[in-house]
Amino acid sequence: MSEQPTSKEAFQRLVEGNDRFIEGDSNFSRQDTLDRSGQAPFAVILGCSDSRVPAELVFDQGLGDLFVIRIAGNVIAPSQIGSIEFAVERFGTPLVIVLGHTSCGAISATVEALMNPTVQTQCLNIGSIVKRIAPSVQELLNSGANLNKDQLISSACKANIRSSVNQLQHSSEFIEEMVEAGKLAIVGAEYDLETGRVNFLNTVE
Predict the structure, then answer these.
(1) Residue 32, φ and ψ in degrees, nearest 5
(2) Rounded CA gap, 140 and 146, in Å?
């Protein structure tokens, strides 16, 4: 296994890659490499399944650079935690990004479900995703803030990212130990669909 960067160095690589993506100066490093079999992912991206947010493009990274896990609403469940544990243990990956995005359909579905509880979706399994997002949205609804639907969705997107980061930090003894040892950092981020900018909700010291 090749030597991994520090968490801070990995974070900076993602920041610089997103800058290239926004500027239209992507180099898609290692996309044309002859060695397609190896990998040494320097970051785990737990992102939403939305087709407009492909992590390798957004961060301008190549084959083997990112360990990407995608699920609608970038929610935390045991299978996602296990996948992250695998990458950190197997490859020494020093950074995890929980990547949400603006105008998230899973967030919108949750807002609609909570605002109209009598309306049932025909897709029953969507409820498992809504259930994981609902506490963050419900907290906003209970706060008394006078938000319209669009404002609520925007605030809920960020609240859900923070909730996922918090769950990840405390749902795995292994991950918690790695964070405490300074070998792993977990960062929340929101991708702006209009600008292409990844806005980080916290950083790596």
Answers:
(1) -105, 15
(2) 10
